[in-house]
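From the pipeline queue, job 12 of 40. The input is one protein chain; the requested action is below.

Action: predict structure.
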Amino acid sequence: MSFGGPEGPEDVLPFLRNVTRGRNIPDERLALVGEHYQLFGGVSPINEHNAALLAALQASMPQVPVYWGNRNWRPYLTDVLRQMRADGVEEAYAFVTSAYSSYSGCRQYRENLAAAQQEVGEGAPRLERLRQYFNHPGFVEPMTENVAAALEQAGGSAHVLFTAHSVPLRQAAASGPDGGAYPRQVAETARLITEQLGTAVREWDLVWQSRSGPPSQPWLEPDILETLNRLAERGVQQVVVAPIGFISDHMEVVYDLDVEAAARARDLGLGLVRAATVGTDPRFVAMIGELYRERTVAGTPRRSLGTLGPAHDRCPVRCCVAPDAAMLPTIGGAE
């Protein structure tokens, strides 16, 4: 399960309408955001990356049928569930392309699946969600190697910025079963990587990117662009940006980091190297199969690094939803 993205210039505005449905954002404002996509021919790289991941996963576990559905663009979740029903699939486990606990990165996908299940109706597959994997070695270890490669390219003495998508403070506070899970988990991934790299990382910060919404609404900070300003004032000369909040290169990576952050670094006289995302690294692909076997093969080890332990399989009732927010039907929960 993924976010989806446009595959041509004519797709950009309809895609952005899907993303912002129910928020009454005028097309004029959406067109401004759409300019980022038009720099890349109106194509988000996320679909190509997901197709590659689908192929790699199917090749690694040929005995299990693997499908791919998006929240906001083709292939849509509802269409995929209809195809699964036609293929005779009765039960499925959803792998979400977000490693962390948050409303937009987990619960909203669970709501989307429940809505698609209801729309498909009788015979729709029973659905569960595979657990978060922010501290699984299949995610942490290839990302660690990517950061090490970027450090070598930067000359070995760069300041490392670990970055993930910012979210409103209210959403961050409500994330996970007990609150605060999203920033805590992202920070743990950064800590695990620096622990594995040892003395190769001299200084590092956790920063946030890609915020949207009105300026009056507080979001997780510090912002990556503001942090670049601060580092330049301190006399830092090289930075490595490690996008640990993303498993593949999509618009928040190729525009917000490779275009916007890179341009800010150039203006400040900073050298900037961006670490690769995990993509279809064989260890990451194998991890997805392992998460599936945890739920289907008794005795499969539940691996994790650090002290937070493996994430839960089924979400508690109010997991990732603010205390005063409406609760929509979900899959994969205890409710």
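Job complete. The chain has two domains: 9-133+283-296, 137-274.
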